[in-house]
Amino acid sequence: MKKFSWRGLVIIAFMLVTVFFLAPLMIKNLPAWWASRKLNLGLDLKGGMQILLEVDTSELTAGEIDGAVKNNIEIIRNRIDQFGVAEPSIQKLGEKRIMVQLPGVKDHLAAENLVQKTAMLEFKLVAPNEEAERVVAQIDQNISMNLQSFPKLAELDRKDRALADSLKVASDTLGTKDGIFKSFISRGEVDYLVQVENVRLMQSLIADSLFARVVPMGYQVSLGKADLEAVKADRSLYILKSAVEMSGTDISRARVDFGSATSTDPRTANKPYVSLEMKREGARKFERVTNDNVGKRLAIVLDDVVYSAPNIQERIAGGRAQITGRFTTSEANELAILLNSKNLDAPIRPISTTIIGATLGTDSIRSGTKAGIIGLIAVILFMIVYYKVAGLIADFVLVFNIGFILSVLTMFGATLTLPGIAGIILTIGMAVDANVLVFERIREELDAGKTPRSAVDAGYKRAIITIWDANITTLIAAAVLYNFGSGPIRGFAITLAIGIIGSMFCALIFVRTILDNFVLVGNKKNLSI
Amino acid sequence: MRLFRNTNIPFVRVRYVAYVISAILILAGIFAFITKGLNWSIDFTSGVAAKVSLKALDETIPKVRIAELRSVLKNNGFPEAEIQHIGEPDNSSFMIKIKSKTDEADVSSETKNRILEILTQNFSKYVEGRNLSTEVIEEIYVVGPKVGAELRTQAMLAVIISLVLMIIYIWFRFELTFGVMAIVALFHDVMIIVGIFALTGKEITIQIIAALLTIVGYSINDTIVIFDRIREDLKVHRKDPIPVIFNRSINQTLGRTTITAGTTLMTALALFFFGGTVLHDFAFAMCLGIFFGTYSSIFVASNLVLDAYAVTHKEKQAIQHLTKKK
């Protein structure tokens, strides 16, 4: 056997990469670390929603723009997390644009509103325990009088009662006696808790304008922030006084500090906390609020979700305050960003939205794949008819080339879009070009009377310059397309570029090796081309 | 199998016929461009495009007619809406497009919500019992005016930048005249295709721009293969007159040119016929591009180089330059 050449190594590497990254598409039940390396499908193939937003920076100085955009991204991310979309993608585009992709979103009106509205940061007092209990009782009383207005609650109530009847126990053991609202909240250590399976229902209740009417005047019900690290955990529920004590505009700056290890204050010692600086007006408000409410809790509410509800220990004058709690550093960071968000006053505006139904997406995949397979078969048959065995080799390598494009896309975590599929299909047609150039040359050399081996050598030697020249110009076009294009065009440019590089490699190294080692062995007189 | 064996088609001699054909095509395109203009898609003008399915669940309800939809939209403040029927007549799928007439912000997200409202109110029989956002609306697309204008400039810029880069590359590899004439041939291709789009009133979408740039890459690829052969033949056949060498080179590469065009056309046609509505126009542009790109590579690009040398009397210099370089 021949000596092991670098060419063989490269080909083996090429095949391994292809197989490694394509396996998750073909084989089920792979280990998780392997299966997760799957090709991302673009929104146009999966269905969903894309919103391109622009941050209005007209009132900001150059130095503030970056921070404002970052804060807005953070706020949008939080809102989407609350909304519960699988695999959302939020990207900064250019200097002040944000692209939000929400695959599989059904209720796009709600999603749009959620993403676009301006963040509202407020400080509100938490109702003390007895007061809160009174409010909850009142809510239940009001709900039971208007139960028909809350079909979901009415149904739950009916089920509970039916269950109670069937078990022949007093309904109060199931909690229905106290009222349906109270039946799905429970007293936690400090606040009420909503069990995780009821969170959705609670969210829709809070958003319902009818529900707002059963909440006693001067109070509001708000959920606590979802804990990202423990999504399955119960959520806190707060009964707040609806009066706004302070708003985001009163704050001039928030930042994360880290208490020194030697600090005497156990709340800050060795722990991250958020320190606030207030504007003059804000400082006065804060002093008044803290003075009047020592021992109570002040909730930091963003978009009606309670992020933190620290206890007021004492009157705080001077416009500086600390928010302490059991924060991790990243939580403290996030809180600081949220607190900063409002005073940057940079509204976001939608500049384009795209909604693609899931059916259209699957249709596109189906027709795209169909077109690809038909094109591939046509090219494969043609190559065999026209170039016989050499054509067959080119076809064999062509199939690997397509696999290679898909696996490189997977490797770089790129997204396959519909134009990307078009790019792959076109590449099928263009990928054989390098082979055609070489094969035509070999035929010419054979016509000139050379032996198969020297015809192949001369053919490759002559064609290689042409192949480089011709493909580099196409690569230039692909590079320009990539730079100019947004999402789908980029996908097209990437697949085109990978396809060109892949097909050059395939024709110059892969096909040649097969020709040299398996077709030209010995002193063959004929070359099937 | 072999399509072309030792052909000797007089491509160089018939070049003036080709020039006339090209000139007619280009002039017709320019005429259409001036009189009818280009139909820029919503990507470039801003506006709302919605693909809706108004197929009633109940068989007894008559199908929505396009005129009905048009009059409803007209009565609700959208007289300029463009409505098309899509796919099978049974599907009752429509594409509704509302473009903004100026570059001002006269079409926005609110327009989209307004259209949805109009549809649910006026076609309640068809919408009833179906999920509005997943079944009725297949696709909605809103583009603000800012994006549209930006895209148009970017598209122009992209075409110009890629042309300039290609001239530089060819200049570096061959000769300036070759580079310039390759680009002239490219312009020729792009102008003919844009002209056909103006003539047929087909929309210029972002995908069409991508197709145009791919054509640019493809067509120059074809041209360079021929140029390469000319450069090589100039070295081999030093004594033959230049037109003979040029003609021989074009004939020698004819097999490769037509076969590559053929395989690429096969896949582009597969896209055209089986790729679905979204890729239809893209595939159409690609098919045109492959056809005219191949045509211009064979009949226009190298012949223009030949004529340029004849006019400037620089053959000798150029040949020396080309054959000296490796």
Please describe what this structure looks like.
The complex is a heterodimer of chains A (529) and B (326). Chain A has 16 helices and 17 strands. With 529 residues, chain A is α+β, with helices and mostly antiparallel strands. In chain A, α1 runs antiparallel to α13 (358-411) and α14 (418-447) packs antiparallel against α15. Chain A is elongated. The two termini of chain A are 25 Å apart. The relative contact order of chain A is 0.12. Chain B is α+β, with helices and mostly antiparallel strands. In chain B, a hairpin with a 6-residue loop joins β3 (82-86) and β4. The longest helix of chain B is centred in the last third of the chain and has 36 residues, at 277-312. Helix content of chain B is 68%, strand content 9%. Chain B is elongated. A four-stranded antiparallel β-sheet of chain B has the order 3-4-2-5. Chain B has helices spanning 15-35, 42-45, 66-75, 109-122, 124-127, 132-136, 145-173, 176-200, 206-236, 242-274, 277-312, 315-324, and strands at residues 39-40, 47-53, 82-86, 93-99, 137-143, 203-204. The chains are: A alpha+beta (529), B alpha+beta (326). At the A-B interface, α5, β16, α13, α14 and α15 of A face α4, α6, β5, α7 and α9 of B.
| Overall shape of chain A | elongated
| C-alpha-based Rg of chain B, rounded | 25 Å
Shape summary of chain B? elongated
Number of helices of chain A: 16
Arithmetic mean of pLDDT of chain A = 81
| Helical/strand content category of chain A | alpha+beta
Strand order of the largest sheet of chain A: 3-4-2-16
Helix fraction of chain A by DSSP (H/I, runs of at least 4): 55-70%
Distance between the termini of chain A: 25 Å
Order of helices and strands of chain B: HEHEHEEHHHEHHEHHHH
Main sheet characteristics of chain A = 4 strands, antiparallel
Which two protein chains have the largest interface (Cβ within 8 Å of the partner's Cβ), and how many residues from each?
Answer: A-B, 76 and 76 residues
**End-to-end distance of chain B, in Å?**
33 Å
In terms of DSSP E residues, the strand content of chain B is 5-15%
Round the mean pLDDT of chain B to the nearest integer and report it: 85
Task: Give the spatial strand order of the biggest sheet of chain B.
Answer: 3-4-2-5
Low-confidence stretches of chain A: 170-176
**What is the overall number of helices of chain B?**
12
Number of strands of chain A: 17
Biggest β-sheet of chain B, characterized? 4 strands, antiparallel
